[in-house]
């Protein structure tokens, strides 16, 4: 054993009384970090188990022929894949560092196995990439939805399936390029920690980054390292947090505004039709009235459009609630001295947990807010009981039409039906619906 190695920063033994006094003597944030750290392993593993199964379900449902031809559903499919890969990469390290707990030290960053720490070095970059891809897919879905409801005449021609997949490809490439500096600066370091007994030490490994204070290299090497650290921080902070959060917040406001405008336009149109219908009755006009079935179909379309936008807004809000505070914390890391030691390190486990919850929640949103998704899910997995509940639930919300009208609507929608809505009332072309999650972001209907 190399006795010249430094002691691990979190060199603490099994003494619970010592750990408790340390936590109590520090501020409440440190106490929260220690307390939640004990629960992070089992809680996060349960969320990952749920998220992996539900994202696999999302992939199966969204690849069905009835849904696969929609640009929006293709984006939702990419979102589910990104969330699934993120969790699959995260789970092995979670099991080793938090469940198995190979070290008696309080911090989960140490391990006596160099192989596991090497894996964790690559896994950290992988999680960053695919989680960031999921965020940008959410942004793309929000942009597509805004184009659809804000520009109904040209939206379907702009927000096409090909452009959607091209946008996802560009997002993936950018995220991979931005993470390269992070991969280069992280390395496996070692230190001395507790062994089999108090009198004996052993080597532990952990992921570390270069420190300018300890550098013995030339001035040029120090300058290069500093530039790499600064570029790595601000590029990740901007591309992965600040910019997407700003875009999501802006698009959320725009979507709410457009939704309110669309609601006002429909109310005005309804009032105009009612007045016109009344004048027609008074004048005994022979002009044929709009069939009741057509009015029901229009109300169905309007209902679906509102549900699609509401679903998207739900996903956007989930992403904002999770990602916006993280973006603020990341900025504070660089602007406030010792912010990492005093604040950020105590919230690390909680931040990871909320991110995992956000990646696992899309299935719940889809099944709750999308009738088309529920019907397809029940059909794929032969869940007749849920299918019956779906039929009863939809009859309470949507106008009822005859079997003939429903058959006609199915013919018009063809294979372009979206997860939430099937047909755009302004054009015969299929249009994108929802976001990501997106996973979060998650558009499901048009």
UniProtKB/TrEMBL annotation:
CC annotations in GO: plasma membrane
Main location: membrane
Bilayer-spanning residue ranges: 43-63, 75-99, 119-144, 164-185, 238-257, 311-336
InterPro entries in alphabetical order: 7TM_GPCR_serpentine_rcpt_Srw (IPR019427), GPCR_Dmsr-1 (IPR053219), GPCR_Rhodpsn (IPR000276), GPCR_Rhodpsn_7TM (IPR017452)
PROSITE patterns: G_PROTEIN_RECEP_F1_2
Alphabetical keyword list: Membrane, Transmembrane, Transmembrane helix
Keyword Zinc: no
Superkingdom of origin organism: Eukaryota
Residue intervals of the G-protein coupled receptors family 1 profile domain: 54-366
GO molecular function annotation: G protein-coupled peptide receptor activity
Subcellular localization(s) per the UniProt record: Membrane
Pfam families given in the database record: 7TM_GPCR_Srw
Protein name: G-protein coupled receptors family 1 profile domain-containing protein
Source species taxonomy: Eukaryota, Metazoa, Spiralia, Lophotrochozoa, Platyhelminthes
């Amino acid at each position: 054993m190399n006795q010249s190695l430094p002691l691990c920063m979190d060199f603490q033994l099994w003494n619970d009384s010592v750990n408790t006094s340390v936590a109590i003597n520090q501020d409440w944030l440190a106490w929260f970090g220690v307390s939640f750290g004990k629960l992070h392993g089992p809680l996060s593993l349960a969320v990952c188990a749920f998220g992996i199964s539900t994202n696999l379900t999302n992939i199966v449902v969204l690849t069905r022929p009835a849904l696969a031809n929609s640009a929006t559903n293709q984006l939702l499919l990419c979102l589910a894949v990104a969330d699934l890969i993120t969790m699959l990469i995260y789970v092995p390290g979670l099991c080793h560092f938090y469940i198995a707990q190979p070290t008696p030290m309080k911090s989960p960053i140490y391990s006596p196995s160099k192989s596991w720490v090497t894996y964790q070095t690559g896994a950290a970059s992988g999680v960053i990439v695919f989680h960031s891809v999921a965020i940008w897919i959410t942004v793309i879905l929000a942009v597509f939805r805004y184009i659809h409801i804000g520009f109904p005449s040209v939206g379907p021609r702009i927000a096409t399936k090909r452009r959607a997949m091209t946008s996802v490809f560009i997002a993936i490439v950018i995220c991979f390029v931005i993470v390269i500096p992070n991969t280069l600066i992280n390395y496996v370091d070692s230190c001395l920690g507790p062994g089999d007994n108090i009198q004996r030490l052993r080597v532990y490994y952990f992921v570390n980054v270069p420190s300018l204070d300890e550098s013995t290299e030339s001035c040029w090497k120090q300058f290069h390292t500093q530039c790499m650290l600064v570029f790595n921080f601000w590029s990740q902070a901007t591309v992965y947090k600040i910019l997407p959060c700003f875009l999501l917040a802006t698009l959320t406001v725009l979507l709410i505004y457009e939704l309110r405008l669309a609601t006002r336009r429909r109310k005005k149109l309804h009032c105009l039709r009612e007045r016109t219908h009344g004048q027609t009755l008074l004048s005994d006009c022979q002009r044929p009235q709009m069939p009741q079935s057509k009015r029901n179909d229009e109300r169905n379309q309007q209902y679906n459009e509102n549900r699609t936008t509401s679903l998207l807004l739900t996903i956007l809000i989930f992403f904002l609630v999770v990602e916006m505070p993280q973006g603020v914390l990341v900025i504070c890391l660089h602007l406030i001295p010792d912010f990492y030691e005093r604040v950020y390190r105590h919230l690390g486990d909680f931040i990871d947990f909320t991110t995992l919850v956000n990646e696992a929640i899309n299935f719940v949103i889809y099944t709750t807010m999308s009738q088309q998704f529920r019907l397809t899910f029940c059909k794929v997995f032969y869940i007749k009981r849920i299918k019956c509940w779906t039929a009863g639930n939809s009859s309470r919300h949507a106008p009822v039409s005859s079997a003939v009208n429903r058959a006609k609507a199915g013919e018009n929608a063809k294979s372009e039906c979206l997860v939430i809505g099937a047909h755009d009332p302004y054009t015969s072309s299929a249009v994108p619906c929802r976001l990501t999650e997106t996973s979060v972001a998650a558009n499901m209907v048009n």
